[in-house]
Design goal:
homodimer, 370 residues, alpha/beta, Rossmann fold, Dehydroquinate synthase-like, alpha domain, six-stranded parallel β-sheet, 10 strands, disordered N terminus, disordered C terminus
Chain lengths: 370, 370
């Protein structure tokens, strides 16, 4: 996979010229900065390659419904896309998941490239080649492994995100920091700096987003099909996905990043109150846990009163793709880079831990020791 | 991929024990010999692995309609299949194509194994991992590369095929003989021998079917994702698929094997009346062409008066997945193992060749030289 950096002007155009597709389909979210869209369109047309399809979709989880697929496949058909055509997505993770899936099965697979426009997609979803559609209420039950030909990170797209969406995407970056000590928790410039638009903050954000994504790609390179190691990237996601699914049909659905932030907070709680495996935290790791918890509380505040019951969450967790037989497999955190996989939840232990965790959640200063 | 031979008793059970799935889904065609179904069911249950799903479907091209997928995915979901479960198909190529596709995308891919029950599936469709669904009227527009964990050939399943279906499947074997001189054109025992049931004819058919499939697998091993060489396996299929698609909605649809037999006869005609590339047949190759044509005429008689017009076929050929840009790519045959790829049709040349070919088709003894 090619890595692309926005500060390297023309890099993605060079990538396109290497690929030499016989046609390009550019599928992007509707709500993007029109000036940036124009800039990219001009660059695309300057390459002289046939742009066979340019389409706008309403982003978000709704795109991952099974019923959306015929729309995408019909678009591919009527544009005459071949398996040598390239599909470029410009949007968030739901868009790259859904369009990536459709591209991966059209004519048994067309190449895709992603230009992520959300923090979440830039550090996670756009990278690594997992595509996914939801089946019923369960997320990503249908999908493929279909690595993008390239990912091009340009944080200027993220200026038009709402602060809530911008912040939620940082949950995956927190996860990467919990997995790999080589990445910094917080980028130097702030969201406000990025929005106000100094070029140096754009570059700083690009670098930070890509360094975070690099944690993921180091793991994926060792295990592209999730036979083992790649599962550590699911830290916080077993509960996170269940929370997201369970809240999907409520009047206040969670953003994916918010659900993951809760999943990570829960993993930190479990580390301090071992239930998944017996290993205890070292004093250093307990200190790290406190730092991560404080960061999550500050950066991605999630508050609601109607948390799903443990039994509801358990039913969703039982659907997790990583499970073997009747166990719910999860990743236990015991310090930065110190992950226990596979660890298995028993129903009673999960329900008790969720109950205790929730009781202390959102308290101003949760105890760092039981 | 494991190769399994019916005469090696217990081989497929051994394969299952190696795989150790956490559950088995057995999906088979409705119209199979009930005694054989019982024999296989007993063998499956004797292994003591949980059989989570046993389902019967009506085989044939209808299974490859997009609308069938939700039924398959719902079955997977309600049976609680995980990505460590194994899906076993027992049926023809349409069944393994459709169920293979569904399995390849459920939880991003469950392993599959195929027990082909038609000659066509035994020499071709069950092998090599191409899955496919039809999109609109166009065959296999949606699919994946998802190699089966094993293929188990047992020609006893083929005793209940109609003679027409049995014979049509041999078209792919003729193709393999046209590609690779290591395979014999005709098996020694006849269809009647197999039906009458001597054990030695079962073994002889198994061996012959597997030797034919081995031609395919030698090519696939060198190019699993059809980047180049694998395209030679499309000999006869560019026209064959177009014929099959064009006749699908008529009152007399062609079987896939019949369409391929026509495609091969057309390839032999083109070899004798070069239109795809300039190379001429050697006298030896012309003799081979005559032998293959006589065999096809005798083994897979196809006669109809309402052949599709050249323009209709061309429109379908333009949809072929192997095309690049606006060219229709095809494989030209110039002798056993002597294939020219890629060769490209121009519309006028194709239409003239189809017209001339059709004029001579079904004549008792078409000229071997113009």
């Amino acid at each position: 996979m090619l890595r692309q950096h926005a500060s390297d002007q023309g890099a993605w155009q060079n990538a396109l010229q290497q690929i030499q597709p016989d046609g390009i389909a550019w599928i992007r979210e509707e709500a993007l900065d029109p000036l940036l869209v124009s800039e990219y369109r001009d660059a695309l047309h300057a390459l002289g390659m046939p742009v066979r399809l340019e389409s706008q979709l309403i982003g978000g989880e709704g795109l991952k419904a099974w019923d959306v697929l015929p729309t995408l496949l019909d678009m591919f058909e009527s544009s005459g896309l071949s398996r040598r055509s390239l599909v470029i997505t410009t949007g968030g993770g739901a868009l790259s998941d859904a369009v990536g899936f459709a591209a991966s099965v059209w004519k048994r697979g067309m190449p895709v490239a992603h230009i992520p426009t959300t923090t979440l997609a830039a550090v996670d979803a756009a990278w690594g080649g997992k595509t996914g559609m939801n089946w019923g209420e369960v997320k990503n039950q249908v999908g493929t492994f279909h690595p993008p030909t390239f990912v091009h990170v340009d944080s200027r797209w993220m200026r038009t995100l709402s602060p809530r969406e911008f912040q939620a995407g940082l949950a995956e970056a927190a996860k990467h920091a919990m997995i790999d000590a080589h990445v910094n928790l917080s980028p130097t410039p702030s969201y406000a700096d990025l929005v106000q638009g100094a070029g140096s903050s754009v570059d700083a954000w690009n670098t930070w987003l890509e360094q975070s994504a690099a944690v993921k790609m180091r793991v994926v390179a060792q295990d592209p099909q999730e036979q083992g190691l790649r599962s550590v990237l699911n830290l916080g996601h077993t509960l996170g996905h269940a929370l997201e699914s369970a809240c999907l049909s409520t009047s206040t659905p969670l953003l994916h990043g918010e659900a993951v932030a809760m999943g990570l907070a829960f993993a930190l709680w479990e580390a301090e109150h071992p239930a998944l495996c017996e290993e205890q935290l070292t004093p250093d790791a307990a200190q790290e846990a406190a730092t991560f918890r404080a960061w999550l509380n500050h950066q991605i505040p999630v508050s609601r009163t109607d948390w799903p019951a443990a039994g509801v969450l358990w039913a969703f967790m039982m659907q997790d793709k990583k499970n073997v037989g009747n166990e719910v497999r999860d990743v236990a955190w015991r310090g930065t880079g110190r992950l226990v996989w596979p660890a298995s939840w028993k129903k009673a232990a999960f329900e008790a831990t969720w109950h205790d965790f929730l009781r202390c959640w959102n308290e101003p200063s949760p105890p760092s020791d039981p």
